[in-house]
Amino acid sequence: MSKLWGGRFTKQTDQLVEEYTASINFDKELAMEDIQGSLAHVTMLGKCDILPAEDVQKITEGLLKVRDRIQRGEQEFAVGDEDIHMNIEKALIDEIGPVGGKLHTGRSRNDQVATDMHLYLRKRVVEFVDLLQKLQAALIGQAKENLDTIVPGYTHLQRAQPILFAHHLMAYVSMFGRDIERLQDSYKRIDTLPLGAGALAGTTFAIDRLYTAELLNFGRVYENSLDAVSDRDFIVEFLSGASLIMMHLSRLSEELILWSSTEFQFVELDDAFCTGSSIMPQKKNPDVPELVRGKTGRVYGNLVGLLTVLKSLPLAYNKDMQEDKEGMFDTVKTLQGALQLFAPMIGTMKVRKERMRRAVDQDFSNATDIADFLVGKGLPFRQAHEVIGKTVLYCIQQNKFLLDLTLEEFQQFSPLFDDRIYEVLQPEQVVNARNVYGGTATGQVTAAITRAEVDLSRTAEWVAEYQEKSR
Ligand code: ARG
C-alpha cells in the first residue's frame, strides 16, 4: 500500500511496525474535529491566496462528502493509513483527485493533531460543566426536601455532632462547584489554537493564523510554534480536573454504599440503579456507586500515565505523544458514564428520615452542646469537656443517653446544670445553635441553598454561551 509519506522509502513498512505505530483504531474519535480544522484551514489558504478559489471549493466539497460518509458510518479506515489525519486526506484524494493533496499546504500533522484535540476537549469541557450542574441540581433538590431531616454528622466515622442532612448534601454541591470552576478556568487554555505552527517552526507560506482562529472560534493562538505542537498541558489539566471530579463522586459513592447498608438504612437507592445477586435472592446491590468508586482508579491512572509520558520529552513533537489519546478518551467515557447516572440516582434516592432520626436520638452527638452550656455558665471549656466526658461515661455504664438523665444525676457532675439543658440537648436545638455562616443551622442551610441556586443559574448561562462558542 502506498504511503502519503512514501517518497523517501525504498521498502514497505514491516507489517507489525505498521500495526504498532498506527493510531487510527482510537484517533478515529477525532474525525469530526479533524474535518472541522481542515475546513477552516483550507478557507484560510484561499483567503490568503495560497490556493485558488476553485481548489478551495473542490477541497471543501470533498471534505463535506467525506464527513457525510463518516457520519453515516460508511467510511472505511485503514491501519495502513496510520492515523485519522492521513485516512481523511486519503479519502479526500480518492474523492476529488490529486487536488486533495493541496489541503496539507502550510500544515503538519503535528499542529493538526494538537488542533483536533483542542477542538475535542473544548466541547467536552462544556458538556461536563453541564453534567455537573445537573448533578448539583439533583443534590439541591434533595437538600430542599431534607431541611428538617437531622442525621448524625461524623468524624472518624464516629458520630460527632448532629447536622441537617441537607447540610451534608450541600457539601457535595460545593465540591462539584469547585470542579465546575476548574473546568471553566481550563477552558481558557484549551481555547488556544496551535494550527499554523507547522511541524515545529512555523511555515514558509504567508498564512493568517488569526483568521483560522476566528473561523474556529478560538480566543487566541499559541505564541510559540514549538510550544504549540508539544503542549499537552491542557490534556493534563483536563485529566486532573476529571480526577478530582471522580474523587468527589467516589467519596459520595462510599457514603451511598454505607447509607444503603442494613447497618445504616439511611437511604434506599431506586431499584433502577441497583442490581441483584445470582445466588442470594435477598440482595440489592449498589453497583453504580461501587463501580464509580472503582473506576476512579483508572482516571487517576490516565493522569499519572500522561504526566509520565510527557516528563522527559525533548521539544518538539515526539511519537510518544500519540499516547495522549487513549487515556483522554477513556477518561471522557468514564466521566460521562458516572455523571449521567449520578444525577438521576440522587434525584430518585429515598431518604429514610425516621431511621436518621432514630440514629440521632440514640447517640451522644449532643455532648458538645452541654459542654458549651457549662461554658456559658462561666466554666472554662477544658473543664467543661472533662465534666461531660465523665457524664457520658456514666451514661454508657448506665446504658442511658444524655436526655435520659435526671437533673439530680446531671448535678452529680456539676452544680451548674439546670433545667434548661433538656432544651439545649434537643437535636433541633443542637443543629440550630450552629448559626454561623456556612454552619448547619436551618437558616444558614436555607441561605446556602439560595446562593447555590443563583450559582446554578449562572452556570446554566455559561453552558448555553459556551456550547455556542465551542461548536
Ligand atoms: N497520530 C499522530 C499522533 O497522534 C499524529 C501526529 C503524527 N506526527 C508525526 N510527525 N508522525 O500523535
CATH architecture group name of the largest domain: Up-down Bundle
- Which structural category do the helix and sheet elements fall into? mainly alpha
- Report the total helices: 19
Count all strands and give the number: 6
Looking at CATH, the homologous superfamily of the largest domain is: Fumarase/aspartase (Central domain)
Which short descriptors sum up this protein?
Fumarase C, Chain B, domain 1; two-stranded parallel ribbon; 3 domains; single chain; Fumarase C, Chain A, domain 2; elongated; mainly alpha; two-stranded antiparallel ribbon; binds arginine; 471 residues
Describe this structure in words.
- GO terms for molecular function: lyase activity.
- Pfam families: ASL_C2 (PF14698), Lyase_1 (PF00206).
- It catalyses: 2-(N(omega)-L-arginino)succinate = fumarate + L-arginine.
- Keywords: Amino-acid biosynthesis, Arginine biosynthesis, Cytoplasm, Lyase.
- It is an enzyme of class 4 (lyase).
- This protein is mainly α.
- It has three domains: about 5-105, Fumarase/aspartase (N-terminal domain) (Fumarase C, Chain B, domain 1); about 110-135 and about 160-200 and about 225-355, Fumarase/aspartase (Central domain) (Fumarase C, Chain A, domain 2); about 360-445, Ribonucleotide Reductase Protein R1, domain 1 (Orthogonal Bundle).
- The chain has 19 helices and six strands.
- It has helices spanning about 15-20, 25, 30-45, 55-70, 85-95, 110-145, 165-190, 210-215, 225-230, 235-260, 285-310, 325-345, 355-360, 365-375, 380-400, 405-415, 420-425, 425-430, 440-470, and strands spanning about 150-155, 160-165, 190-195, 220, 265-270, 350.
- It has a two-stranded antiparallel ribbon with strand order 1-2. Strands 3-4 form a two-stranded parallel sheet. It has a two-stranded antiparallel sheet with strand order 5-6.
- Helix 3 (about 30-45) packs antiparallel against helix 4 and helix 4 (about 55-70) crosses helix 5 (about 85-95).
- The chain is elongated and about 100 Å long.
- Bound molecules: arginine.
- Arginine binds near residues 23, 109, 110, 113 and 321.
